[in-house]
Amino acid sequence: MIKSGLSGHYQNYDMDKVLIKNLQVETIIGIFNWEREVRQVVSIDLEMEFDNKVAAKSDDIEDALDYKKIGKRVSSYVERSKFKLVERLAEQIAKLVLKEFPVSSLTISVTKPGALRGSESVGISITRP
What we know:
Number of domains: 1
Order of helices and strands: EEEEHHHEE
Distance between the termini: 19 Å
Structural class: alpha+beta
C-alpha cells in the first residue's frame, strides 16, 4: 500500500523486491561424467518479494529481509548439492528460500557460464509463490 496524492488513502501496489544478483557458487552440476567430478561455477539471481515499508521507516536490519543471510544460506546449500540439471537446482533453491525466509514469492535464475560454446551462459528462470 502507498499513500495516494492529497486524499491520503492507501492503494494496492506491487510488492517490493529484494535482489541478489550474480551470486557465484562452485558446485557439482551436469549430466556428463566429467561434470560429476569437477566443480563448476553457477550464477544465481534472486528477486524476492518482501514488504520493505517497516524497514524503510525504522532503518533497522531486524525489520528488513537480510540478504546477507539469504546469500550465505543459498551459497552453502548450492556448494553441497550435486544436481544434474539447473532446473532441479533452481527449484530446490526456491523451496529453501520460501521455507526459511519471510519471502512471499520469488523469481530465481540459475545459469552455467560456458556450458554452450558460443554463448555466455545457459540457464533457467522460475517464479514461485
